[in-house]
Amino acid sequence: MKFTKRYTLKEIAKLIDCEFIGESNFPVMGMNEIHVVNAGDIVFVDHPKYYDKALNSKATIILINKKVECPKGKALLISDDPFRDFNKLTNHFKPFQPSEASIASSAVIGKNTIIQPNCFIGHHVVIGNDCVIHSNVSIYDDTVIGNHVTIHAGTVLGANAFYYKKRSEGYDRLKSAGRVVIEDYVDLGALCTIDRGVTADTIIGKGSKLDNQIQIGHDTIVGKKCLIASQTGIAGCVVIEDEVTIWGQVGCTSGITIGEKAIVHAQSGISKSLEGHKTYWGTPAQEARTVMKEMASIKKIPEILSELKKIK
Fold it and tell me: Which of 43, 90, 105, 292 is 20 to 30 A distant from 53 in Cα terms?
């Protein structure tokens, strides 16, 4: 998330009432999760395991819960609870804005686009030309939809990221301030749920087609001309490259990449990145041909045991 203007380190520290290390006028341009940070961004870290990753990332302001040596050209915000203070910043720069109408006055809807009854369209939503939005679709704030997009009934775009910190009193949610971006010629089936990014975008690429009842997690990027069948669940921060086919009831862990033109058979469980131009099946997902050969070999075990008995 980029701020609408440049802030100083001192101004940001005052917002969250914390100590800072660095020049007071050090520029702060935005805040992001570590996988999408750039120079001028704030990133937060609250576990020693990830200190080095955060300190050596592209982010130039690190919101951290321990005084450490500040890398050259960077600044630190010292907080007793970086998770809490990252949420404070999100609330300040992107506060929740209640809606007063089913279709917000700030929404922009293109030519020849059809909005069926009982839809909700939030603040600053942009919908392109020649789209069809079927009944009971909910499109949360800041969502961007391209041209020639079809969205079927009951789909929700822009719900919160499933991102929580466990505390003694329960789970604390990391607030979401990102967007959902649906590119041109995308079809979304009924009852799909596509979560907004925490600070960046969840993207469905041009020409991709999603079946009914599919979950796409926060900050996931689906490439161009992908096919995803029903009841598939994709976790957050996944990269699905162009022309990938994922069949029904596939589950996918977070933070991995599925390579271009990969095919994943139904009911597979994806636990690590998959190379492109190959076909996968099983849990954990492996090359389908290898798994099929192994299954064929297993089926031969009774026959082999019978032959061994004859030899004895």
Answer: 90
Cα→Cα distances 134→37, 106, 159, 227, Å: 36, 20, 18, 21
| Boundary of a domain, candidates 47, 64, 93 | 93
Same domain assignment for residues 83 and 119: no
In a domain, 103, yes or no: no
Active-site entry in 124, 218, 265, 277: 218
CA angle 170, 84, 95 (to 5 degrees): 105
Q: How far apart are CA 169 and CA 172, in angstroms?
A: 9
Active-site residue flag, 277: no
Condensed to tens digits (0 to 9), the pLDDT of residues 33-55 reads 999 999 999 999 999 999 999 99
Q: What is the pTM of this model?
A: 0.92
Is 152 inside a domain boundary?
yes
- The parent domain of residue 286 ranges over 108-291
8 found inside a domain: yes
Residue in the block written with tokens 């161009």: 224
Residue range 206-242, pLDDT digits in tens: 999 999 999 999 999 999 999 999 999 999 999 999 9
